[in-house]
Amino acid sequence: LDNPDNGSGAGSLVAGVDVGGGEAETVVYICECKHDLSRIVALGTCRGDDTRGRVVELLNRYRPRLSVVRVDSIGIGHNFALHLRDHRFNAEMVNVGNLCESKPNLRANDASRRFANLKAQYYQTLADLLENRRRCRVHSDQALAGSSRSTPCVSIRAEI
After folding, report:
1. What global pTM score does this model have?
2. What's the rounded Cα separation, in Å, for the pair 149 and 22?
């Protein structure tokens, strides 16, 4: 979740998108990353019609502070990232099937020894961020939910 923030406070958020195809869910997370601390600002899932539009609506809420949107670019994620670029987001394509970077100096915490690939590492990091929060408030996210159709969408806001 390293953040390319310039230290000014603007652009202190990093988003990630794991695009689901067909009936699979698309997962969106937005994290605030400052120094060695990270916290979840929003986590949403959705599926169905107009997923791309609903994800853009959610990301637009955080645009002034959003430094990068990392997209799982395998398969349909590639075109999803291009769609985000068309909407002027700094979309970074990530092949989450790649192996983790080896850092032998971390010994037991070396990600290349702990995880099969980047996807496993990223989801474990996300799970750790959610688990380590003192309070989490779950609410319906209208930007992701879109119209009155009953599309499953949930957003979790973690508060410190």
Report:
1. 0.69
2. 17
